Amino acid sequence: MHPVTGPAIENGVVVIRGERIVAVGKKGEIDVPQGAVVRSFPTGHVYPGLIDAATDAYTDPSLRGDGSSDGGTAFVDDLRKQDSRVHDLAAQGITTAYVTVRSPAFVRGQGAIVRPKKDGGFEPWSGKDKAALQVRMTNGPGRSHALERQQQLQQADGLFEGLDEYRKALTDHEDALKKYDKEFADYLAFHQKKKDGDKKPEGDKPTGSNKPAGDGKPADAPAGAGQGGGGNDPPKDEPPKKDPPKQLDGEQAAAFEAALLTLLEAIAQDPKPKEPPKPDAPKPDGQQPAPAGGAPAAEKKDEGPKRPTYPKAPSKEPQRDALLKVLDGELPLRVEAHRPDELRAALALQQARKVPVLVLEQAYGAAALADEIAKAGAAVVLTECLPIPFEPPYDRFDATKLPARLAAAGVPFAIATGRASWSSLLPLQAAAAVGGGLAPAEALRAITLTPAEILGVAKDAGSLQPGKYADVLVTDRPLFLTDSRVLLVLGKGNAEYEVK
Amino acid sequence: MIRSLPLGAIALALAALLPAQDGVTVYRNARILPGGAPAIDNGVLVVGGGKILAIGGADTKAPNGAAVVDCAGKTITPGLIDASFRAGNTPDMNENGDEVTPHLRVLDSLEPADPSFVRARSAGVTAVHVMPGARSVIGGLGVVLKTHAKDPQAMVVKHDASLRIVMGAEPSMGNRAIRGGSVDSIYYRRPTTRMGVVWAARKAFYDAKEALEKSADAPPATPSPGVEVLTRVLRGQVTAVTTARSEQDLRTALRLAAEFGYRTVLDDAQDAHMLVDELKAAQTTVMLGAPSATAIAGSAGADGADPRSVTARLLADAGVPFVITTGSNAASLDLVREAMFAARNGISSARALDAVTIEPARLLGIDQRTGSLQKGKDADFVVWSTDPLDPAAAAESVFVDGIAVQVLR
Amino acid sequence: MLRCTLLPTALVGLAATLSAQDLLVRAKTVVIAPDAVLADGRFLVRAGKVAYVGQDVPADAAAKATAIDCGDALVVPGFVLPPTTLGRDRDLAEAALPFTPDLRAVEAFDPWHEELAKLPHGGFTSAILSPSPRNIAGGLGALVKPGAGGGSVAAPDLHLALSLNAAARNPERPPTSLMGAVDLLRSAFAQAKSSAAAGPDVAVLRSALQGNRKIAIAADTLSEIQQALDLARDFGFDAVIVGARDADKALDRLVAQRAAVVIGGLAPEMRLAQLQFPARLAEAGVPFCFTGRPDQARLSAALAVRHGLDRKSAWAALSRAPAQMFGVAGQVGALRQGCAADFAVWSGDPLDLGSALRAVYVDGARVHGELPSAAANPASSPAAGVR
User: Confidence band (pLDDT; 50, 70, 90) for B221?
Assistant: First the structure.
């Protein structure tokens, strides 16, 4: 048994209850609960479920050539079960995968963490379905120039431009909303009180007087409530609908309901306001709030609180929202950069914009600046880690020796497939890294615990430890042997694959 | 899930239709059009071991224990035979190294896994005659194949079934130096005109005739393989098939045959309606390629033919033997639809069906094995949903040598 | 008869003359051949050849020999690269003529070519240099080896390289079609069989038909493979089919005609059926090996093992099978007595990607890598006797 967090255990036992591991240890030293189902693999090897830190499984193949995505794109929205064996990740022992698309877009969008299920199915990891923001800072193997690198860096840096103002606008809006909620509550309370006070005897009078009021309103509207409502329709509807849940104060809710009822009655009785809302939006908008009390209040020249204006929301920009999350450290920034100069540009971006979590992808040339990457605290996700030499001009990089170099420099790195068709080769890639000089334990870590840490799911996955999800892989021979076969794969304790 | 349903249905149907390869199966209650013989209503067809064991009316005896398939409402015909079939469309069908290559065998270039065979058999065609491409004056030897066999080599029904000769503009196409290209190109050569095409053919037959005459006097020195093939044509041992579309080319083809004294079948004869009398006088069989097509076959109109829908009727009325093929016309329909077209333009249904079954079998010399439903012949037959010449007819089950190659229902 | 005595014999003998002293190679595991594996094995190298293996090594010779102690490592026969043009395609296809059976690949051999020098990086110690499959009959192949002092020719005029594949059917010269190519080969073979004809090309064909040299035919599609097998059947030779993309559709015939196949290298993206094909070939008993780049051969074999091939067959595909297919099994592909001392030292089984290549020796001389200091015999540096 190979728990990853400690040395291998001969005759190991892992106890699973529900979807979690409850105990791991040597046979005899662990209490196996009575009545437990025992699965025994006398010659087998047990590993934590593998974690693929980058794959394009479940994605739409057409997205690979699609350069139109941006930071607001979430790949989780377009994942589907694929009709192909290569997308059966669970059968290869992979129980957690980070799904992304290698599209040519500069900002590709947000990758998703999914849990592969049996027969090629999957489920998004709840709360981690938007797991990192993907940026591409490379021209690929094509011709490239230092000036282009500069442009790329500027472009990437430009993403962060104006973020402070955007954040300020958002917080300002929040404050304004709070203020509005309070004022609107006061306003409602005032009129409710007034209504309770003098309108009860002649309950239908305000509705009766609404008809002329509604018609005569346009003249009055610009001065009063119409001003605020002149903007657009939704703000009018939103406050009544949104506010009550925010302040579930019993009295106020009742008051609100009463006001709403009056308004609805007025609309129901008056056929005219019903028709206009569509043809010309601004004007009838002015009418609607009027019956609620604004108009009578204005007519009576009441000195109560003025109906507050709903604060205008700043335009939402999903990409900037994601970037803010990046700056807050909630979302890692994953930068695809291949060559040393591209990697250096990515590190410069991190420095300039103080990006808390930086992950470098496909960093083929990382050996040249492993120490700098270590110093910057960035992690690396390696793909194409097989003894197939790269084509020029990447032939000067050695894919199998890179992991050992990164390990020596202390850079956390994961080995990933990068594409669904390589899923069965994830252990072979790690084995190839061993061939390149990496210690076998480090190689195993690079496809289990380290990717769990990079993906931020190490609390639940990546090793055989009590409390983590029961993601377990059983093979007939050591995982790194070419002819080792998967015997059993458990995901959260359920069999996702079992050899017949 | 959804996909597996029809598959399962097919498997079930297969199991029903094909108990065992050597088992005997009886097809009952079908209307049988045996080919070259009157229709049998409520007929019985007994098949076993890849052969037809018995055929007849409802009282036909079947061995005990035979599987029985009820074909009520269906029509059974012999497997169709396409006497001029384009298999694949690869450059391999023509040897561009020379204009006259009588000894080349198209079989050597054929890909057994070519999708065109699958398409043909799913449309009810069980045997095809494939000839070399039309870009050579004398392209080489054709072959007759079944459209399916377990072993690709077993597809062959008849080797060296024909020698293809092509008249018209197509063989000379491309025989010019490409603009800016080198005059050393192998394509910079004669023929570049109709005259040149005929010259190449005439020269080849002249050499063959000379070799034939010499060999009559003295024991022959080993002739070149091409000449050897041509002497077999002159002796009538190999059928010459001349592809000629326009009236002009058809007349040339007949003239050349008369000049050297060989008989030829005319392939793709789209202008045959213009010289019915000559055809009758020459007692030539005509392969009517894609009668439904209005577009001209072959080299994009360079041959200037004028196809008419009444051609089949004119030939039938005049008593000129003809078969219907899909020919080299890319716009051709499935073979059964071409027969339907001819039937709708004036020939009888029986004649139309014969023109795609027993007639081509006789023409190709394979009528001992297939082409009609007769006791002892290969179990090549098609179960149609209704009369095959009905536009809505579908080839529900197709059998080649008793093996189901298509099962729809 | 065709062998040219003026061949660079200096190159042939180069490595042999360099290592005057015997070498004693010891390792925890020595793979003599796929079915002969020695634990704690050893063998003695004399004059670039394997002189004694295992228990047969005489004690006095062992004592005098320079020891190469490989410790825990695995010593395997150097891999043999099946027909390749080693990046010299242009020099190995005579463009003007389609039929050149009497041309010799050895004339186009460049001992300093970098592709050759790179062979040891993938564990290869020899290659079958072959005329390009762009000619119907390309000519004669040769067994060549890399070396620290430039490459060498181990055996000239090996096999007759024929081709029916798409590359051979050149639209610029006849034959342009498969039927034309088949006709050309048929008439040439028929001519060679008849006693009347003469000439260098006929002589080459005749000697091949008499079984003096192997005949390899490049064929990819089912029709090409069938034509190649038809030729082999009709003219009575055992064909080696090179390329063999659609070979899975003709497996029965390959078995029946005792043909061998050289299949394309495997890549991770391939279809499952393709990845499993080597296992099917092994099961059917058809000898096979992988073409492709030398640095991909090991991965091809590993992928085949991953998809069901047994390790012995995978080892064979990299060494013994190509040697046998091209008639050089007495020289390379195994570490038997009398074979060239071409071997590679791996940290583990080369089919496990976790194993690393430590060193490669050709004719007893090291051409790649370096072993950690020779613990057993500290007096002699590891490189002693090598250059």
Answer: low
Q: Whole-number mean pLDDT of chain A?
A: 81
Q: How many CB pairs under 8 A join A and C?
A: 55
Q: How confident is the model over C43-72, as a mean pLDDT?
A: 92
Answer whether residue A218 shows pLDDT above 60: no
Identify whether residues A138 and A199 lie together within a single domain. Answer: no
CATH of segment(s) C9-78+335-369 = 2.30.40.10
Contacts of B92 in chain C (CB under 8 A): 169, 177-179
Residues of C in contact with A386 (CB under 8 A): 268, 299, 353
- A346, A487: one domain: yes
Domain annotation covers residue A314: no
Within this chain, do residues A350 and A290 fall inside the same structural domain, yes or no?
A: no
Tell me which of A299, A314, A343 is where a domain ends.
A299
Interface test with A, best of C272, C353, C358 (most A CBs within 10 A): C353
**How many distinct structural domains can be found in chain A?**
2
Q: Round to whole Å and give the CA distance between C75 and C26.
A: 8
d(CA A8, CA A446) in angstroms, rounded, equals 16
Are A38 and A461 contacting, i.e. CB atoms less than 8 angstroms apart?
A: no
CB contact under 8 A, C187 and B132: no
Query: Among C147, C278, C322, C164, which residue's Cα sits nearest to residue C231?
Result: C164
pLDDT of the residue at C188? 92
Kindly identify which residue of chain C lies nearest to residue A426, measuring between CA atoms: C268
Cα–Cα dist B371/B381, whole Å? 9
Which residues in chain C have their CB less than 8 angstroms from residue B94's CB? 176-177
All residues of chain C having their beta carbon less than 8 Å from the beta carbon of residue A437 are 356
Mean pLDDT of A78-84: 83
Rounded CA gap, C250 and B295, in Å?
A: 40
A196 within a domain of the structure (yes/no)? yes
Domains of chain C: which residue ranges?
9-78+335-369
Q: Could you read off the pLDDT of C87-114 as tens digits, one per residue?
A: 777 788 777 788 999 999 999 898 988 8
What is the spatial distance between Cα B74 and Cα B53, in angstroms, rounded to a whole number?
Answer: 20
pLDDT at B16 over 50: no
Region A215-232: what's the mean pLDDT? 41
Task: Let me know if residue A103 belongs to a domain.
Answer: yes
Which positions in chain C touch B104 (Cβ < 8 Å)? 177, 179-180, 183
Chains that touch C (3 or more CB pairs under 8 A): A, B
Chain C: residue whose CA lies nearest to A385: C353
User: Distance of CA A10 to CAs A28, A39, A479, A481, Å?
Assistant: 11, 16, 15, 18
User: Closest to B98 (Cβ–Cβ): which among C174, C187, C252?
Assistant: C174
Banded model confidence at residue A376, pLDDT cuts 50, 70, 90? very high
The domain that contains A379 carries what CATH number?
A: 3.20.20.140
Would you mind telling me the total number of residues written for chain A in this entry?
Answer: 500
Q: Are B127 and B157 in contact (CB under 8 A)?
A: yes
A250: buried, middle or exposed (CB in 10 Å: 19+, 13-18, 0-12)? Answer: exposed
Say yes or no to pLDDT of A69 above 90: no
CB contact under 8 A, B93 and C180: no
Does residue A306 fall inside a structural domain? no
Domain boundary among A299, A316, A345: A299
The chain C residue lying nearest A485, using CA atoms, is: C306
Nearest chain B residue to C220, by CA: B111
Chain C positions with Cβ closer than 8 Å to A: 267-269, 272, 295-296, 298-299, 302, 305-306, 311, 347, 351-356
Q: Domain range spanning residue A287?
A: 179-299
pLDDT digits (tens, 9 = 90+) for C277-304: 999 999 999 999 998 888 888 999 999 9
Using an 8 Å CB-CB cutoff, list chain B residues near C227: 108
Q: Are strands A494-498 and C343-346 parallel, antiparallel or unpaired?
A: unpaired
Amino acid at B27: Y
Domains and their CATH numbers in chain B = 4-79+372-407 (2.30.40.10), 80-364 (3.20.20.140)
Q: Are residues A63 and A212 in the same domain?
A: no
Residues within 8 A of C (CB atoms), B 267-326 only? none
